[in-house]
Specification:
alpha/beta, 8-stranded parallel β-sheet, 6-stranded parallel β-sheet, 52 strands, 40% helix, 13% strand, globular
Amino acid sequence: MAVTEAAEDPAAAAGPRERGWEGFSSATRIWFLDAFPTGPTPVQERAWATIGRGENALVIAPTGSGKTLASFLSAIDRLGREPAAEEQGNAAAPGGAQGGADGVRVLYISPLKALGADVERNLRRPLAGISAVGPTRPISVGVRSGDTPARERRRLRNHPPSILITTPESLYLMLTSAVRETLRTVETVIVDEIHSFAGSKRGTHLAVSLERLDDLLGRPAQRIGLSATVSPPEEVARFLGGPHPVTIISDDGRATPEVTVSVPVENMARIPAISDRRTRMERALAAPASAGGGRGSRPSGIGRGGSSQAWRSDKALGRAMAAGRTDGPGAGVPARVSASIWPHLENAILDQVLAHRTTLVFVNSRGACERLTAHLNEAYAARLGAVAPAPQAPVHRESWEMGTGSHTEPLAAGAPVIAKAHHGSVSKEQRLGVERELAAGELRCVVATASLELGIDIGSVDLVLQVAPPPAVAAGLQRVGRADHRVGGRPRGVIYPVERTHLVDAVVAAEGMRAGAIERTELVSNALDVLAQQTVAAVSVAEGLTAEAWFTTVRRSAPYSSLPRSAFDSVLELLAGGFASADLADFSPRIVWDRATGELSARPSTQRLAVASSGTIPDRGMFPVVLPEGAQDAGRRRVGELDEEMVHESSPGDIITLGTSSWRIRQITGDRVVVDPAEGRSARLPFWKGEGLGRPAATGLAKGVFLREAQSSLPSEAGAGESEGERALRRRLTEAGLDAHARSNLLALLREQYRATGALPTDETLVLERYEDESGSWRIIVHSTLGRCVHEPWAMAIRERVHQLLGVRPQTIVADDGIVLQIPPVEGGLPGAGLITFDAAEISSLVRSRIETTALFAARFRECAARALLMPAARPGRRTPLWLQRVKAGQLLEASRQFQDFPVSVEAARECLQQYYDLPALTDLMERLASGRVRVVEAVTSEPSPFTHPLLFGYASTLIYQEDLPHAERRAQLLSLDPKALDALLGDGGVADLLDDEVLAQVEAELQHLAPGRRVRADAEAIADLLRELGPLSAAELAERCTDVGGRVPGKDGQGDGADGACDGFEGADTHAVEREVGRALAELAGARRAAAVRVGGRELWARVEDVPALRRALGAEVPDWALERATAGVAVKRRAAARSPLNDLLLRYARTHTTVTPQRVAQAFGLGAAVAEGALAELAGDGSLVDLGAAGWMEPAVLARVRRRSLDRARAAVAPVPPAALQRLVLERAGLDEAGGGVDALAEALAALEGVWLPAGLWESVVLPARVVDYRPAMLDELIASGEVVWQARPIGDAASRSGAARVRSGAADVPAPGEIAFFPTDSALAPVAGEAIALGEPEAAEGRETGVTGEELWRLVREGAATGRSFEPVRRALVPAAGTRTAPPSRRVRSRRGRRLMMGMPSAGEVTVAGRLSSVVGSTSWVRLSSTSAGDEERAIAEVESLLDRYGVVCRDLALTFGGAGGLGPLMPVLRRMEETGVVLRGSFIEGLGPAQFAERESVERLRSLTHGPDGAAATPVVLDLKDPACLVGRGVRWPEPVLPAGLGESAGGGGGETGGPPVRRQGASVVVLGGAPVLYASENLKVLISYTSEREELVRALAALAADRQATFARQGAAIRRRTVVETLNGVTTLAPAVSDLLSQAGFVRDPKGMRLAVGPSGATWR
């Protein structure tokens, strides 16, 4: 390609065919001179001259110089003339474009959709103006981009505009669809902001699209490129022209931008501490500012000097706060302070905004854009006093927020907004509205990212502010160029450094912008992923395209001018399915490549695939943010987009800020976030991950040059006066635009760094700093200016070197300004410069060999595979979750490791090494180190040097939470149980028995394409897919898997897979028709050399050509010679040495298309011996490719997961849920409460069933054990404990109180405290504590010097804390008995009956016992042993807990696990339960109604539940009385309380009853429920004062009342005559028991009348009242 420079004098360069300014029509010239009285600029005249000659042109001129108008005006003038002779042939047909040719004439390509819309608006002015001056042909303009609605796209296709404005992606889509016909008339292509394309894959993609466009045209279109920042021009011109020459028109007289660097504080090392944002807002609310915040207003409380709230240091502020000093209005508000530079920076920016009409503020990330916008609006509102009162309650979660910087403060309703955000994650409508407001002067400030960097017309901007140095000089020029954006204007901008070290970058950027030192553009050459995408697109629409012709087209584009033919062929092999393996059997070829003729043809889905997954912009898994359906007033619902991680950290109800507005999250779905407006609310600021690649090496070298020159000006000794060199440096900084504060801060920084390390990092010096941190570890810092692209691979090599020399893996953090390593203390000295110096070839080889193991490579592979159309979206146009993309890419990456030169792997490695890693710059650095052109200066410091501080901050922010995991209880760690430990404990035997036979048959039919809906059409492409997926098949086997042309299945009587109706007589005759169609398809494939007939195991089979070599090598199959030649005709696909053998690869594909695989089946299918087949299968199982199922055979893991999941689903679906009453009956049955046993054996069974259940200490022997053992006596429990079969343990009072409520502790202060809760454990249980050494009690008066044991108080404390236990339960009993001095005296009575007096006189009077005496009685009642935690592992304990719950309740679910299980409820047990389900120990399903979907039960329990459902009803069942605290009582904890009801004739249920009937009964100790048939029928309060009936059957209620009376009498009998209660029932469902009907009912149950109600009758053991 020839590149020429345009002549300076347009008149001298004019030729006879030139149509420049003078060649324009009079209407065009008149309009232009009227609009621009000064006339055209020299650049415009030269551009028009070049364009007029028909040459390709690259126009380089500053922003606002009229480049875009120059490029368009020539085309407008040509199109607007009266039809000339050469245009008659292209005259518009009826219904075509308005007055123009029936096609697009001028194609304008914009990098941004917004920029294209802006250009379309700006074109209206010249079009309308020229047509108003004189008669011209009408010119239509259209815009097509990703946001264009479908109706508008149809209109553009039917009525093509003369000028079409589009983006590269839309151009690609048009070229890949029928719309390409409208592009056959294109004459001119204008590429705006070409610099933004040239150095990226997007530009590579565009370059190929332009060549595809030229293939459509009769002659190549004229290409015009526009940019203000191009370097070198020749490289960009080569990109633009491809094989054609390009003339470069450059404006050498551009105005130098006025760039300054400003620092808002005097000393950045000691930033004045001020009140934080919230305090300033509160003070503004307390005393609103009287000033209106005009342009001249000064900040309140944040000013640079003189402010009463700005302090010179933290110490001064602390002294003032300690002295109670208060200043200014609102000082009474408690102050929270901040020593950050951001408040000062925000204040300075606000001052600038208020001092100018319009201001544009650029930041380097979207998160900073939203944050700065919110803070500017808050500061402005604070000045105006428009601050909303702080809400009393938090409006959203803030537990994860760090200080006030992560969310906004609420503003008053209608508060003025001075700034709005503009970035790529804000919706198009919002961005357009912001642009219009700024252009109209309605908005004072816009905070933007690179979204406004390019040439969008936003009106007249007075000033541009850049927060933190721009990422590159070119970006800085583009951003500053937005100010004074007009012909002859001089851009003005201010850079605000955020850190001290930013000052150096700001100087380099400012000097580079003044000098126009733009970074060099490097084309992305030979991108194989882009080539694959464009190849699929070109083949999908081109008829008769050959590989040679396509190779020629691709090579015409500049990025592919050096593309090797071997790389090109490897891409074709990939797309045509040449990389054949079992792992890639699911990968459908995208195209068909006839290697004999070279023809490329499309497959049925090729075009759809090319269109659905187009472009090069990677899918980052962003969540679109939308308004709810119907909530939008006008326009689209889209609000913007959020990072996936941001969404995962949010929940419905959170309030976020996006685009300056606050939004409340209403709903989060799998692919979108639905929000509602929430103006004026405190909101969380969003964040986006992965913004920016780091500093280019060229920019880093420029920074190094500046530091080297600055270092030569610094004084060599501290304390010396300012030298001449320093004065020269100060003058240089002044010329660079640094203000006084910036100059002083930069000079101080350089001096401090020079004194700390003895040298500055420059282009010729590396500084190796090390110091010992507070933990004793070494921090090693490599100071370098070359940027992260160089430092990342360098750090990889340094990490390996440290591991080799010291045997440790250092923690490493990489930044643009260096590398930080943390090395733990090691013996001997640390290596010096040898740690970071490498041989150039060594480091290049190391990085290349390790690149495939990095996370960066995996991420790049994912994006490259998506660009190459290997990972199509499951739902085109919808979001694909990033985790799903990673899973798919990981599977593809593992499959690609079988091959040496898999194109996507090659491209991913190239992208890592050239784009993300700058390996050439790194090797150049090593060569300069070896030659001595770069030296290493070592420095040992006592504290970090100034250049180190920002590096350490990045280090801390990266690692601060890495190890800071919440320390939950030990049991909660079961969420991450070791699966191997679970396998060892639970076993994996019997997995094959769980697999349902019907499911096995169904899945195999689906895998083999024999199931309904899985058969394919009997055409060539479908047959090719079958051979690829299933391997070699016979013609008959293929016919079984096919339908006929109408979609009917042979051998079926009715409708087939795709048939519209039945066809009579189809069953017999059309089976042969399908076989004939299959035969024709096979013949077509054989004729195209895509399939061949082979003989395997004596059978005649068909195989695709790509499988022929493997069949020959693995099986010795007979194959045609032409097939072997055809398979090797293309690129030789080489496998790695460690790749799977051909036989194993064939067997693995066979396993992936079958369910159970046995050696016999494999031997029969491939003609092998059974022993050979078994050995190969065992080898595949050894490397994890197959799962050994024992005698059943083997199964591929993905197939096994599919079969097991369906089998489990089938098993779950087979179980119909039963009523909760059935579960209650099962629990009662297992607890022995329906038929209580007797004796010690019954007690042992009861305690085993209650393993690990924590209950109040007094409940065990009063309620729980007597209910299960009819003849229970305390001696029985003591016998089991003494024999060592059972151990009891108390739980600490605090723990018990936190979980189940503390046990009722007597109020007497002088009493022995009773244990809170107690649990019993069989001593062989995995949950049981381990009994240790015996505990000796100390003697109160031991002789001096004689060793004694623990005291009684210490021992009892150990018991209550669970660290000791007794050999009997007697101590607990004695502790539960009230002391004599603490007994509550009965109320005094004036009149007592003779019987009452006799009883009172007969009461034994207990003697006064001291506390020490009672404690001695308690601890001396048995011997004691220490307890320690169980030695069982977490997995074993979890299994024991699950088994205990299953034994007790039969079913494990969330509610039961929370109520009766351990800490954490069901969550910690889920890994065990899942594994038990997978191994067949339990089933999962919805067994019990109302207990949720996650229920687990053993098969026997499920069957028993079913049988109990059909068991005896309430009339035949035996009533059971349960204490509500009893673990067997599920009423209210799984079995819901029914609505209270009374039998007929007893009255209406009232809502009184002391609150008992107003809702679910209160679960108090002593309260009871009578269960009949598993359902609650009667509730009784602890003293029987209140009864509640839940049955309408009188007989059931009578039986329940009788059972309740008998139970209470038995309880009183066990307690003895010493405890006598007067038990009176006062109400039944709120109805007084004195009512005749109710009293008669209670009388039938054994109650007698009493003045207060119905009293429980005297039992056989004595009185029951007192």
